[in-house]
Amino acid sequence: CLGVQNVSLGLCDIIVVGDIAGASCSGKARREPKVGGGLQTADRYWSFQLTKKADSWRIQEVLVR
Questions:
Q1: What residues have CB less than 8 Å from 38, skipping those under 6 apart?
Q2: Of 31, 37, 19, nearest in space to 64 by CA
Q3: Which of 7, 22, 36, 60 is most buried by a 10 A CB count?
Q4: How many angstroms separate the CA atoms of 65 and 44, rounded?
């Protein structure tokens, strides 16, 4: 096990055009390595690309900065 990691998303901007969607979210990533250090927290920005198949949405790509 590499340790514990938590992600919290804040507000997201979502755009939907037919069966394609995009979401841009800000938030925080928290990580506590099993070895070598304490809790590490960083602000992050996520960008999701989604497609709709039947009645469900699937994440196609995620970019994190």
A1: 32
A2: 31
A3: 22
A4: 6
pTM for the complete prediction?
Answer: 0.79
16-38 pLDDT, tens digit per residue, is 999 999 999 999 999 988 887 78
d(CA 38, CA 36): 7
Token code pair at residue 48? 């999701």
- How far the first Cα of the chain sits from its last, in Å, is 24
CA 47 to mean position of chain CA atoms: 7
